[in-house]
Design brief:
Two copies of one chain form a homodimer. In chain A, β23 and β24 (about 440-450) form a beta hairpin. Chain A is built from eleven helices and 30 strands. The longest helix of chain A has 20 residues, at about 455-475. With about 575 residues, the first copy, chain A, is of the alpha/beta class. At the A-B interface, β11, α7, β18, α8 and α11 of A face β11, α7, β18, α8 and α11 of B.
Chain lengths: ~575, ~575
């Protein structure tokens, strides 16, 4: 879906340019074909007002396009763009498109009271007074991310601690047995067990087998060999008796070695206290599968080390650049008082921390001033070293909100969504930009334009950016773990938008997950993230949810408990 | 509790040296005072056999010491040391103490069948045939760790991403209001709302307030000022109207600026769309408390950045060295086949990963050969750069298990425990060693001697080492989060020892935590950690636990779910 078709009208002819690849051409044509009759009617000169008189529902019905299912509170504008036979990947925005149909915001005027305001003939002050970007549901936005984020690339990684967090791009087979030899699991004496299993008696110590490489001397019935934990059994030995079950009887003449040892055990079975060859891992067996992530708990990397894997094929992890934007933003640690209008940069540090915690390399791109040339150059420079840029700020409706124009006009990028029906985080923007790599190939780089309010930036990072990073790193399923929890108290709901409510999930004494709010959820209030380990997925609605109601939670951190060691 | 009193008997006098500090002296004296009469009787020459004839219970009753509560399967030896007025911090072990009373191991002979074997007169082959270390319960072992691990040290840290994971050693107050000025929360027009709240009409745009520092011109009723999200309100303005609620009417003569804008809103309230000064955070208020940990979710570090904190007092994080021991151990990635007896080093990589995941600096100490001089020098070198050494291997009953002798005899350290009643991990060893720091002060360094079997090493790391690291880093409560979960299937139990069963905790559709086993739990099988996100705390017992039973789990990783975005 990285193709960028161009569509337009020349005289009375509708011109659609499809991508060169058969697959791309087919997909793009499928996306627009039902709306072509409508476009042709318009191009042929039919009066637009008459044509649109039946409203979107009629147009959709005529074209055979069902309204998208899901949680759109603002589906109208979104669908409307479809009925014109192009979506926003066509780059039609350019600051003068589709102002109508996106008016269901929380505000004073009813949408119908607001005339069309987006006439380019108005001169230099031609900014949109309505966002030209359709308001997507969260699910639709996530779908756009899935479709447009590049697939994971593979690489060869050494089996080192830096492997933690990475995902295997191949099955890994054991190249040898674990253990590779018959080994004692205790310190004691290797013995040849007689048929009756009675080992009681005094035996000569004929050899010593340490947990060290070397050849072991064969053992006969009636002889014993001292052996340490993990050491190879002498050939012929059938069991090991723990040292605790023995008594030292006599020493060698020089007094330096054990000569005879008394064994106190009867009912000894063959194979006792022995790890057989390959009993933990058989040579050739698959120890880890493609798609498995190497956790830091240690089991996976331990498994790789134990079978002698020195290198494995993994998915490349994306490198992420973090940029704050806005003339008003100053470094958080700038000495001295703030001047009027200045705001300390909260997002850069918070987002860098969140990215680093996920194990990805992060590059600090600083603070970009509100000048389109500056932002453009910063992004161009960034893309030479990072795969993903996360910006915050500059995505509202202000005349200095330059991110979208810079992506579309200066960088030739595609904005896949620019508004999402959610709280907080409505102006969240996701785009891709084609950038030539060192081999001269155009590869897609990813930009997330997050809102400037700190709570919004962190929530949308976890909700949208993380799935993109996971997808690029080969983690499946991508994104935060989602699971139901019970509400620990009543929660009120937002009337029009689903809310991602910062909360603390605790395990109660029944092993049940219970969520409590972190308090005031204002999008500017980064304190709503303090202590939070989850985002509660609250639906929109007029009535609240009662204590005990079941709600999905997205887990950002470890669950809590009142109990610890 | 790091004081190291010395006690002894000279002629018939009991000599106890207490620490110099009044607090330390008091605590130490309290610890031994009830046992002093008993010690005095012995010192005065009373026959030890007669004195001890009544057994430990009688001695305890005489001294007024209650038996420790809890899960001791081997409480006898432990309590016995108490009745002598010293515990293992007195360094009495030295390889020839207290062999009796610690025989409840899983083995062939009943303890009574095994005569005392620990006579030093037997010559060079004088190793113990029973461990001289009392078998502690897990709870008692954790208590020893709490008592003997150094208290956290404070330092000053810059507010950077490296702060993540650290714990605050002071309350942090906001040095300024957030926001620091009255700010617009939307893009639109600052207005002076008339008494009736009706703003409908066409107004002159008299100024522009960007989200950039500067002086704002005062606004009068009947005038409006264009304003961007986050920008300071002009003095006199009372509300902000969203741009979506407006229509551009006329331009300035040069066509470059808005001259008049129509506002479509009525019922406008004062303060609408405005963030008041300090409404998110008030200057002087405490934003984070001493003891709070800076998480990577971003809320805490964002909070610090937003209030302009450049530096904060935190607790120093311990640096950890990881050492594997054993002549048989080869680097996991050594090319070529294994020779007889060789084993690939699994623990070093797995433990380094686990430490790094916790955010602590980790140093690779390599593999130490089974020569006491080598081990001693490796440990001495390590303590010049690390606070904690974690070794694996060399803690069993073998003649080459040199860790304990090296700690006690060569390094002058104290072994606080050398055996724990648990599965896996029985030989887990915890010690402290006094080391001169750069200022010439003797400071305690911590050693954990973990078992060589990979599953044992990882389980005991999470169970014992982590609480120690947390304590040093100021994290409270220390150690893994513990909470009840339901068993997803039947589990069998170990007859004599509590088991820390590697399992996967999943949230079911009711928001309930359910645990399933990772499979065969053999201590050599690192695969039992693969995919594990918890340790189930299974009690010892002869009957198993049924599906649905409630059991405590220690959470090593994020809970799982069948559901994701």
């Amino acid at each position: 879906m990285m193709s960028r078709p161009v569509a337009g009208v020349r005289n009375k002819t509708v011109i659609v340019t499809l991508p060169g690849s058969p697959k791309g051409a087919k997909e793009n044509l499928q996306a627009i074909i039902k709306t072509l009759p409508h476009a042709c009617l318009q191009a042929a000169g039919m009066d637009s007002r008459t044509l649109h008189a039946g409203g979107v529902k009629k147009l959709e019905a005529d074209a055979g396009i069902a309204s998208s299912a899901g949680n759109h509170t603002h589906a109208h504008g979104h669908d409307h763009s479809h009925t014109h036979g192009h979506d926003h990947s066509h780059g039609h925005g350019h600051g003068h498109g589709h102002g109508h149909g996106h008016r269901n915001l929380v505000r004073h005027t009813a949408p119908s009271a607001n005339p069309m305001s987006n006439d380019p003939s108005l001169g230099p002050s031609r900014r949109n007074r309505e966002s030209p970007y359709p308001m997507l549901s969260v699910d639709d936005a996530l779908q756009k991310i899935r479709e447009n984020v590049p697939c994971p690339q593979t690489c060869t990684s050494k089996v080192r601690i830096s492997l933690c967090g990475q995902v295997l791009a191949e099955d890994v087979a054991a190249q040898e047995n674990v253990p590779a030899f018959r080994a004692s699991i205790v310190d004691g004496y290797a013995v040849v067990v007689p048929k009756d299993g009675n080992m009681k008696g005094v035996f000569p110590v004929v050899s010593v087998s340490h947990a060290a490489p070397g050849e072991a001397k064969p053992l006969k019935e009636g002889e014993i060999a001292r052996i340490t934990t993990g050491a190879p059994l002498p050939p012929g030995a059938t069991s090991v008796i723990m040292v605790e079950d023995t008594v030292l009887k006599t020493l060698t003449e020089d007094g330096k070695e054990e000569k005879e040892v008394e064994i106190l055990a009867d009912n000894v079975s063959e194979g006792e206290n022995i790890r057989e060859v390959g009993s933990d891992i058989k040579a050739g067996s698959i120890v880890l599968r493609k798609g498995e992530q190497i956790s830091a708990v240690g089991g996976e990397i331990g498994m790789l080390a134990s079978v002698g894997a020195a290198e494995v094929k993994t998915y490349l992890q994306p490198t992420v650049g973090i940029l704050s934007t806005g003339d008003e933003i100053v470094p958080h640690d700038r000495p001295g008082d703030l001047r009027l209008g200045e705001v300390r940069d909260t997002n850069r540090l918070a987002l860098m921390s969140a990215v680093m915690e996920q194990g990805y390399d992060v590059i600090d791109l600083g603070i970009a001033a509100d000048k389109s040339g500056t932002l453009e150059q910063t992004l161009r420079d960034a893309f030479s070293s990072v795969d993903v840029v996360i910006t915050s700020g500059g995505v509202s409706m202000g005349e200095l909100d330059l991110l979208k124009p810079t992506i579309e006009r200066a960088l030739g990028g595609t904005i896949h969504f620019g508004r999402v029906a959610m709280k907080p985080g409505k102006p969240t923007t996701f785009a891709t930009v084609p950038v030539k790599d060192s081999a001269g190939e155009r590869v897609p780089k990813v930009i997330f334009g997050l809102p400037g309010n700190p709570a919004s930036a962190l929530v949308t990072f976890h909700l949208f950016v993380l799935p993109a990073l996971h997808q690029m790193a080969g983690i499946e399923p991508a994104g935060l773990t989602k699971a139901p929890v019970l509400l620990g108290h009543d929660f009120s709901l937002d009337k029009s938008r689903p809310e991602y409510h910062r909360a603390i999930v605790t395990v109660n004494s029944d092993g049940q997950l219970v969520a409590t709010s972190t308090g005031v959820q204002r999008s500017s209030r980064v304190g709503s993230l303090k202590g939070a380990n989850c985002l509660l997925c609250l639906p929109s609605g007029t009535e609240g949810l009662k204590k005990g109601a079941k709600v999905d939670a997205l887990f950002m951190g470890q669950v809590r408990s009142e109990f610890r060691l």
